[in-house]
Design brief:
Layout lengths: L1 H8 L4 H13 L13 E3 L2 E3 L3 E3 L10 H6 L4 E7 L12 E4 L4 E4 L8 H9 L7 E6 L8 H12 L5 E5 L14 H18 L8 E6 L5 H14 L3 E4 L20 E4 H20 L6 E5 L5 H10 L3 E4 L1 H6 L2 H16 L15 H21 L1
Parallel strand pairs: 3-4, 3-13, 4-7, 7-8, 8-9, 9-10, 10-12, 12-13
Antiparallel strand pairs: 1-2, 5-6, 6-11
Length: about 375
């Protein structure tokens, strides 16, 4: 029934389908998946499994519990801005199913931090880890101050905070990723968190989400400045403004951030580069969350092999329906077992090379499929 419902929503305009899915999850109209345990410890938090719902889906923090019921180990709400804002003009969301992709230019449409905090406080019997993704208002005169405000206001409701300075849909926002600005932004967010929560042990970890379009040296400089500011880790990556020649959709030239399959290889490469940089710089304990183009267990496994502690997806859910979450987790657990491991942490960062990570993931997938067939 739920798969049929998902197919029906695909016939709706893209943003209407998105809104319908959020409504369904926020009101309990969604399947409840069998719990698949693949425990992960990261940033002082205990995750039931490493797969999370990326920010961008639940913009106003109304659907976190419905998302957890789909099988996710955690969910990230937002991006949430201090003041309400409408975002960019419609249409601003485009499906590219033949490319396994989506282009969005939402532009931080948000009801604001007060509405989001109230929604989070309404949750009864809270389940799963909830991250809160924060951003600056488009018209803010002082964007650094916006990150302070949002962190200060929302920290008490967050298991972790994500500072989003990598959306391509707010003019000038990505400039904050540069070494000259990123430390000031993150220090402001961390100050907001610390001033809101007196006890250090109760403070949520702070992550920063970076773009896939940075030059490698700029990525490393941003990571070093972020580490100096006191972040717990990085989400790699946000959507891309590049357009591969392989895109076939009539929407391929629409402005905005491209997500899904065309981003998968680049996101893996950035994650691998980041993992190597953390090892070389003596900061291997900083958390890496792999995002961008993950739609199969094999993709997920390759990210972990390349250095990811945790994973996020969104586009795969939008294009493939609610059962994709449990299916990826079921197969991911089978891959871990087929590789002779008992926990995700045992395979994290085994391969520094993206190519080797992909080849090994494909090899283990064949072994797991053979075992499944024999059973």
């Amino acid at each position: 029934m739920w798969q049929l419902a998902a197919k029906w929503t695909q016939k709706l305009p893209a943003e209407m389908a998105h809104d319908t899915a959020v409504f369904a999850l926020s009101h309990g109209f969604a399947p409840i998946a069998d719990q698949i345990l693949l425990p992960v410890q990261a940033a002082g938090l205990a995750f039931d499994n490493p797969l999370g719902l990326a920010a961008g889906f639940d913009k106003n923090a109304v659907a976190s519990q419905g998302a957890i019921r789909l099988g996710f180990g955690f969910t990230e709400v937002g991006t949430i801005t201090p003041l309400p804002q409408a975002g960019n003009p419609k249409p601003r969301l485009f499906r590219l199913p033949e490319d396994g992709a989506v282009i969005n230019r939402y532009g931080f449409n948000s009801k604001g931090m007060r509405v989001a905090r109230n929604n989070l406080r309404k949750i009864e019997h809270r389940r799963g880890i909830i991250g809160v993704n924060i951003g600056a208002n488009k018209e803010a005169k002082d964007r650094v101050a916006d990150y302070y405000k949002a962190a200060h206001y929302l920290s008490a409701e967050a298991d972790y905070l994500t500072v989003n300075i990598s959306s391509p849909n707010t003019p000038g926002l990505r400039d904050l990723q540069h070494e000259a600005h990123i430390k000031a932004v993150l220090e402001a967010a961390i100050k907001g968190r610390d001033e809101a929560i007196a006890h250090a042990d109760a403070r949520p970890a702070v992550f920063v989400k970076l773009a896939p379009d940075m030059e490698t040296d700029d990525l490393f400089a941003a990571m070093d400045a972020s580490a100096q500011a006191g972040v717990a880790g990085f989400i790699l990556t946000n959507t891309t403004i590049t357009r591969p020649d392989s895109l076939n959709s009539i929407y391929r030239d629409e402005a905005g951030g491209l997500s899904g399959q065309p981003l998968a290889r680049r996101a893996l490469e950035v994650l691998s580069d980041a993992a190597g940089h953390l090892k070389r710089s003596g900061a291997p304990d900083l958390v890496l969350i792999g995002a961008g183009g993950i739609s199969t267990a094999e993709h997920a496994y390759a990210r972990i092999l390349a250095g990811a502690d945790l994973l996020q997806l969104y586009t795969a859910l939008a294009l493939n329906g609610p059962y994709v979450v449990a299916e990826i987790l079921r197969q991911l657990k089978a891959l871990v077992i087929a590789d002779g491991a008992s926990a995700v942490s045992e395979i994290k960062g085994v391969f520094a090379s993206p190519e080797k990570a992909l080849l090994h993931a494909a090899h283990i997938a064949r072994i797991a499929a053979k075992k499944s067939g024999n059973n």
